[in-house]
Amino acid sequence: MSFTSFSNAQTLTASDMNDNFLFIADGNRLPYTQGAAGTLTAVDDTYDLGGSTTAWHTVYCDNLNISGTISTTNKSMWSKIASTTLSATAALITFSGLDGDLYKQFRIMFRGIWVAGSVDKMTFNADSTGNYTSNIFWASTTSFQDSVNQSLTAARFWGLNSFLANILIDTATGKGRRYIYDATSVAAGAVTNISFGGGVWYDAVNNITSIEFSNGSTGYAAGTEVKIWGRV
Amino acid sequence: MPLIVFKDSTTADAQDMNDNFNFIAAGSILPMTQTSEGKLVSVDSAYDYGASATTWQKLHTVKVDANSITSTKALWRLVSETTLTATAAGIEFTGLNGDAYEEMMLLGRVVTDSTSMTSDHVFFVTMNGVSTTSEYAVQRVSSFIRTVGSTKTETASNSTSAYGLELHVKKTGVQEHTATAQYMFKTNVFTKTGQNRVSTSRSMSGSATTALSSNAYGGIWFDTTATITSIKFEITSVSFQANTNIQLWSAI
Fold first, then answer.
1. For chain A, what are the domain ranges?
2. Whole-model pTM?
């Protein structure tokens, strides 16, 4: 059915009138704009459903398909704000254009594959001037160790070889940039290491705008995946 | 363009009719209510889009701006957040429903006092106001340093009684009691009745320039029948200071 734009002195058929109501109300609801000669044309990413001062109370839907962003009052959701999957080996994985004050905290899912490495590291705002401390603990199948270091050139976490690491970072200025992490390393169907720990970036003043990951050697292999979530 | 209210025994202009269709269908779709004059005006948070028994199949949108979002446990939502502005002995979240949430997550940034310590100070969470130590058990692994520059120490412990679901220990004689030391933790708890109320925690303490300790905890509350309606974050012997921030998240 189509939408009919009426003209004066035109004799309407009941069907035309009925079709117009059905065009608007029946079936899938699309965002429309008024086109030429008063017709209604569906448009993409132009109009809102509700307004900032005239909100719908509850939206009921089975699937919510969002191609952009979510925002809530009180930053009460976690939303993915950046991600990358390596298609080739990379010595560094860098995320720029971040805003630590806006998101308050970052949760990072790091599924890493070492080409070769010594320990996983992250720096904030490209600061590699000895402004980090870490306390990390790791256990292999036969032993466990820990290390405490100050004045490091990067914040440390230890994934090792092929690993999954979860990292939580306080990113707001003025609060102390502490992080905690846990990681599990696997090889050939077995868990080879587990690790956990935390640390501090000494800088509590500058907004975090970038994070760079490295592993002290040739870096990460294709397939390595990093996702950063922020409070929205 | 405003909505034209048609009247009996009048000639309707075709453009008015077209405009009414466009008023309803073109541009942003706002929730409307009818005034006494028969006009449509937009209103805030009064009407639903779809209904619980007649849902839209998909909502395609570039952005979502909402006060709250629920789903079939597909998202994490902030249930409550407290930032202390003054000293407090504990932070309690009430009005909860552990069965509805199934799993909860506590995130914390903690400031404690800097007084001399004569005993370990344990951070823990109690459920439903239950503080009987025999109701909880805990196991932990810790790595800490006693003074900056000193040798690190590892400890492990297992106890069949605990203050609650323990998540950090501020050790006697450890540099953690310095005024600048702060603490960060993440605790996940399975909260549904009929299941073990198991927790896992990671925590660390750090001064401005030293990572003083890292800890991994596992805990259990033995009660599997009572619905969890409150969770209280506490510490032994001392109090939490201003700027302590505790967030309670749940799957929704």
1. 1-65, 73-231
2. 0.81
pLDDT tens digits along A139-190: 888 888 888 888 999 999 988 888 989 999 999 999 889 999 998 888 777 7
Q: What is the SS3 assignment for B50?
A: coil
Residues counted in chain A: 232
Question: CA-to-CA distance for B51 and B56, rounded, in angstroms?
Answer: 8
Residue B71 maps to a domain: no
Contacts of B71 in chain A (CB under 8 A): 64
> Any idea which residue has 């077209």 for tokens?
B18
Q: Do B42 and B81 fall within a single domain? A: no
- The two three-digit tokens of residue A143, written as one number: 């032993």
| Cβ-based neighbours of A191, under 8 Å, separated by 6 or more | A141, A184, A185
My answer on whether B39 and B97 are in the same domain is: no
Q: Whole-angstrom Cα distance, residue A224 to residue B181?
A: 35
Please name the helix (run of DSSP H) or strand (run of DSSP E) that holds residue A106, with its range, or none.
strand A105-116
What average pLDDT does this structure show over B100-109? 92
Interface test with B, best of A6, A56, A179 (most B CBs within 10 A): A56
Tell me how many degrees the CA angle B171-B176-B177 measures, rounded to the nearest 5.
90
* Inside any domain, residue B27: yes
Residue B9 structural domain: 1-65
Mean pLDDT of chain A: 90
CATH of domain A73-231: 2.60.120
User: Is the same domain home to B41 and B114?
Assistant: no
Q: What is the ipTM of this complex?
A: 0.74
| Chain B hits for A51, Cβ within 8 Å | 28, 30, 42
